[in-house]
Design brief:
single chain, TIM Barrel, Lyase, Ornithine Decarboxylase, Chain A, domain 1, binds pyridoxal-5'-phosphate
Length: about 350
């Protein structure tokens, strides 16, 4: 069997959720399980966070139905509601809470005429200009919904456009809501994502929605920003050395002379490539962890292999275990070197990498 695996640290996961709970004591928690639990596998994550979550937020009907069939009886929120009115049958069947962000969704609900009451999250566009209704139209829309659809509860939701410690936009977006929706706090409100819940207490309200810090990476893309919160990485991507080469001055490594060695050195070939989800466009200061030492990746990442420097690691041999990211090499750091964020790397780990629970 190819030695690459994702190890899922379920204790870290449970611990991260406890930390989140302590920070947001007065709010309920939507644990976000979209994109197959940020690449970890919804089936590997859900059982360990069920107790301390108040509900689960997902993107697709498949994810929601999976949770219901596993016996989940907590609220399940579809973060973008439905994409076609054909989905309404299953939404009612499985008692899902839906986000409504566009007029066509309201019309579809009216046309569907269900006798069952439904929970609705109204998405407010408070400044991100991605999804949602204009703040000035919200009260009208709520009245229209109340008069035309059998609703059990209407909640307000918005999403922040900035995931930083000193965000100017978060305050600005909340102020916009406060100004245009006078009685906004008579509704249940869900505004905060991971960044907002960590650094902007005034944004917590009734329900927070947490994704990235549950999985142990930073919403800002910088590990140092969450270091003091005791959040731990849940995902470790590891593999093994499958070959060792000795190279001499003037030798190159990998495709297109990606690395040129000016001295004699030992290099290790790891079973991990971009087809596993490891980013190909990393810079030349990207590290892996082997035998307690951080060492550099040499040359270009191939589809199925990566070369690493073993110059100062004589103990490394074929079969030695290598961490690509995890506790020692933070996913945020690999992401930074590839010009992206931990979110993208987690979601990109491909299907061919088995996920193993620890
Ligand atoms: C993905 C998502 C979240 C979670 O964001 P994190 O930064 O991972 O905490 C929250 N709300 C909405 C609407 C989302 O789509």
């Amino acid at each position: 069997m190819r030695p690459i695996t994702v190890i899922i640290n379920t204790n870290a996961l449970k611990n991260n959720l406890k930390i989140i709970k302590n920070i947001t004591l007065n709010s309920k928690i939507w644990s976000v399980l979209k994109s197959d639990a940020y690449g970890h596998g919804i089936k590997n994550i859900y059982p360990f966070i069920n107790d301390n979550s108040d509900g689960f937020a997902v993107l697709t009907l498949d994810e929601a139905i999976y949770l219901r069939t596993k016996g989940c009886n907590k609220p399940i929120l579809l973060l973008e509601g439905f994409f076609s009115e054909k989905e309404l049958f299953l939404i009612y069947k499985y008692y899902l809470t839906i986000t409504i962000h566009s007029k066509w969704q309201i019309n579809a609900l009216i046309k569907y005429r269900s006798y069952c009451p439904i929970n609705i999250y109204i998405k407010i566009n408070s400044g991100m200009n991605r999804l949602g209704f204009d703040t000035k139209k919200i009260l009208k829309i709520i009245n229209f919904i109340k008069n035309n659809i059998n609703v059990s509860k209407i909640s307000l939701m918005t999403h922040f456009s900035e995931a930083t410690i000193n965000s100017y936009m978060i305050k600005k977006q909340i102020t916009k809501i406060k100004k245009s929706i006078k009685n906004y706090n008579t509704f249940s409100c869900s505004f905060a994502n991971s960044a907002a819940l960590l650094w902007h207490k005034y944004s917590h309200y009734n329900w927070i929605r947490t994704g990235i810090i549950l999985y142990g990476a930073s919403p800002t893309g910088k590990w140092k920003d969450i270091k003091d919160k005791k959040i731990q990485p849940v995902m470790t991507l590891k593999s093994k050395i499958i070959s060792i080469q000795k190279i001499y001055p003037g030798d190159i490594v990998g495709y297109n002379c990606g690395y040129y060695s000016n001295q004699k050195r030992r290099i290790g070939i790891i079973a991990c490539g971009y087809a596993d989800g490891y980013p190909r466009n990393i810079n030349d200061k990207t590290f892996v962890f082997i035998k307690g030492i951080k060492t550099k990746i040499l040359g270009t990442v191939s589809m199925d292999m990566i070369a690493i420097d073993l110059l100062n690691i004589p103990k490394a041999k074929i079969g030695s275990s290598v961490e690509l990211w995890g506790n020692n090499i933070k996913i945020d750091d690999v992401a930074k070197s590839a010009n992206t964020i931990g979110y993208e790397l987690m979601c990109s780990v491909s299907k061919r990498v088995p996920r193993i629970l620890k």
